[in-house]
Amino acid sequence: MATILVADDFLENRDILCRMLELVGHRTVSAANGQEALDLAQTYHPDVILMDLSMPVLDGWEATARLKALDSLRHVPVLAVTGHVTPHEIQRAIEAGCVDYIAKPIDFDLLIGKVTSLLNDGKG
Description:
Blueprint lengths: L2 E5 L3 H13 L3 E5 L2 H11 L3 E4 L8 H9 L9 E5 L4 H10 L3 E4 L4 H13 L4
């Protein structure tokens, strides 16, 4: 059973993502902003992180960059889950350390497929 950290500032999005991931057998931890995501990642050492990019306190781009700067977490794959899908925004996410992205509204089959692939590739 993998642990997935879900970071999104909207409670409804966090709840839906967590429920979908739990239905396929994963444990979930959720954060309402980038700073919480950083703190929880250091506590729970998740196998994969789903990161919204536009959040208060600390946005997903900066939170991802800070995660990737930590020796204990740099190996954890971060999947951007976002409405920010212009080429520039996606490039920013990749440069910050995201391995891929999924656009909102979320296609749950695609999301589960990407999470499963990250876990099976040994990246998570």
